Amino acid sequence: MLPPSVIEEIQAETELYERKQGACIDALKIVQHHKGWVDDESVADIAALLDMTSHEVDSVATFYNLIYRRPVGRHVIKICSSVSCWVMGYDGVLSQIEKLLGIGVGQTTSDGRFTLVANQCLGACDHAPTLMIDEDLHHDVIPDTIGALLEKYS
């Protein structure tokens, strides 16, 4: 069951929409903010609050790649895999991250520190290749700087 404070946050969001189902993405983001990811129980709780089915909420959650339906690390690395980043060195940056962390895309380090996910576009094509760690955008990334960059996130 969602904590009362989370339920209150979700209910406050529903007031911003003509139909409370319109707050589905907001509700998922609220739960993820508090739990780090959205589990099946939370999907059911959100569905009940918004008069939706669990399947409908899960469909929304799995459509958006920034809603995590399984546990993630303390820090999520979103590497941009757009054409611009790919042309400007995505492969080398990705290879270096995988080498240093010992994980591939969609995996979490054994210590739970990092999860690596691909993201189709981070909206900074003029500074490709780019990646985000949590909410921090890093641009013009080159493989040689990845180690120092990762050290900033404990």
Itemize the secondary structure elements and their pairings.
Layout: H1 4-14, H2 24-35, H3 40-50, H4 54-63, E1 75-80, H5 83-87, H6 90-101, E2 114-119, E3 131-133, E4 136-138, H7 146-151
Parallel strand pairs: 1-2
Antiparallel strand pairs: 1-3, 3-4
Helix pairs in contact: 1-2, 2-3, 3-4
Task: Please describe what this structure looks like.
The protein has two domains: 4-63, Arc Repressor Mutant, subunit A, CATH 1.10.10; 75-151, Glutaredoxin (3-Layer(aba) Sandwich). It has seven helices and four strands. The chain has helices spanning 4-14, 24-35, 40-50, 54-63, 83-87, 90-101, 146-151; strands at residues 75-80, 114-119, 131-133, 136-138. Strands 2-1-3-4 form a four-stranded mixed β-sheet, covered by helices on one side. A hairpin with a 2-residue loop joins β3 and β4. The radius of gyration is 17 Å and the shape is elongated.
